[in-house]
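// run 5 | inverse folding | seed 20
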């Protein structure tokens, strides 16, 4: 898929974080591609309302991928077919990296790294089921140093996937230690489909380093976007060898207030007053008095209170 070959800067799928409003915001700030939170293939089978709500996106988010997780080739193929008909994303991604017990316990996510045959069976069925591209996101292996990334990337390529994203940690590492970035180079040399490098990109410079050190075709940013949608523009500036511009205090305040407003419009005030606390705390990191403000943010009980805290926090910062 061409968009994965063009040094694209991609927003990672992150459950509980990358819902539609955050994805729109990241697209506005330079993310070239976004991916949904992981969506359960079994949930799709039962047409669960909560699951179907995860499939909604705005046209402005395109190109967008919907990520599926599961462990049964038929369920995943049916889910992929349903997703294509229901919302027609630009691609469908298979989650083969999630280390969370709830997912792994049912043989999904990174459990697929231990079962080459199942991994292959799922991807073959998914590719067959839809006319849009199928991609896959893997970790480097189940155990540290017992890497299966190259082998599975080759299998995925033979199954007809259009891109492979690698987060080069083992399942057992979860998020500990540093990513084994050299694994991305190994996978890149092993396959001819585009390879997306992911893991520990916290700045524009990190994105450039990932591209140049590993030779990967595109990069994916997860936690580095927390409270910092500007990271995508900054990564683009670094890649193009342009000066990075940092957002001004007033621009930051406006973005945070807008994020709060749009989240409340999309998901309702109650959910917004709970879910936006973490985002606001991330935005305010590094500000003078951030830790006191963080406590107040987490004690707040409404969207209007959160908005007042944001205004107060930025009014206390110098230019
Ligand atoms: C809160 C959270 C939720 C995540 N949810 C998903 C998910 O739904 N699907 C997935 O493939 N990876 C998920 N991940 C992993 C990220 O996509 C990414 O691979 C990982 O965070 C490493 O990249 P980073 O260092 O840029 O954050 C999640 C990570 C975090 C922190």
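// decoded
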């Amino acid at each position: 898929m061409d968009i994965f070959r063009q040094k694209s800067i991609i927003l990672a799928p992150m459950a509980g974080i990358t819902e539609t409003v955050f994805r729109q915001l990241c697209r506005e700030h330079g993310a070239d591609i976004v991916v949904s939170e992981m969506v359960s293939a079994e949930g799709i089978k039962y047409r669960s309302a909560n699951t179907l709500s995860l499939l909604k996106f705005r046209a402005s988010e395109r190109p967008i991928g919907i990520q599926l997780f599961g462990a049964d080739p038929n369920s995943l193929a049916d889910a992929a077919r349903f997703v294509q008909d229901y919302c027609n994303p630009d691609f469908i991604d298979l989650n083969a990296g999630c280390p969370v017990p709830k997912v792994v316990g049912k043989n999904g996510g990174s459990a697929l790294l231990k079962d080459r045959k199942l991994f292959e069976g799922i991807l073959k069925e998914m590719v067959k089921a839809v006319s849009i591209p199928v991609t896959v996101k893997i970790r480097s292996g189940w155990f540290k140093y017992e890497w299966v990334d190259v082998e599975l990337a080759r299998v995925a390529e033979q199954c007809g996937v259009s891109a492979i994203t690698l987060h080069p940690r083992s399942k057992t590492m979860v998020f500990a230690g540093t990513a084994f970035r050299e694994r991305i180079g190994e996978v890149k040399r092993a396959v001819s489909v585009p390879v997306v490098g992911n893991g520990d990109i916290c700045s524009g410079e990190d994105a450039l380093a990932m591209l140049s050190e590993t030779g990967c075709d595109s990069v994916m940013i997860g936690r580095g976007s927390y409270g910092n949608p500007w990271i995508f523009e900054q990564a683009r500036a670094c890649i193009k060898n342009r000066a990075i511009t940092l957002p001004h205090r007033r621009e930051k305040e406006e973005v945070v207030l807008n994020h709060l407003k749009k989240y409340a419009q999309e998901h309702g005030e109650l959910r917004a007053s709970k879910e936006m606390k973490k985002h606001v705390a991330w935005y305010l990191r590094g500000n003078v008095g951030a830790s006191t403000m963080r406590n107040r943010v987490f004690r707040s009980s409404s969207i209007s209170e959160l908005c007042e805290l944001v205004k107060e926090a930025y009014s206390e910062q110098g230019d």
